[in-house]
Amino acid sequence: MNFDSRYLIRWGMPGWLFLLWVYTKFIIDGRIKLTDIDLQLTNILSNVLIFTVIGLIVGFIIYQIYFSLSWLNNGANNIKYTINVLEKIDIKLPSNKLKKYYYTEYLWHSNIIKMDEYKMNYLAERYRHLLNKKHDLGSIMISLIICLPVSFAMITDAFSLYTVGYCFLNLFILFTVIRSFYYYSRNLDYFMAEVLKDLLSSKNNLNN
Q: CB count, 10 Å around CB of 97?
């Protein structure tokens, strides 16, 4: 079975990030003492392996939370601009929001596969790139949100410049990830809308 490297980012990063925050919390409140850590090579390698595997499992769960919140019951809200464009060019869409999203996805795929191979591959690759970026950032965003209670707990357990700085670091990274997430979301929505508008408008002109 081939494991796509992008899943290391999509599942690994959120999980590893959360574990790092929890690990730091345990160091601050004294549950883990740096002086007690065994620095023998075999122990380091085994700990890294355990951290990697657990991080992937936790990250996969975090990604499912992101996907459930953002897509399963909210699909149409991710492509608002596309839906507005389709309605303006008199494309009949289902009234149900979820079905509206499914039908828009169907329109996208059913139209680009009719194009010549070069154009189809370019559009499909561009769409895949934007969608992957959105999913990667979305899962990291949820991880950072889950990390916030851990950051606040650090301050309540041991108020210091270090713990306050760690909390601000959490908020700063979250802010930058949210901005990037919405950039790729809007970019994807606009790209999909304009391509569909060109394809469906030209089809309507030919039919007329």
A: 15
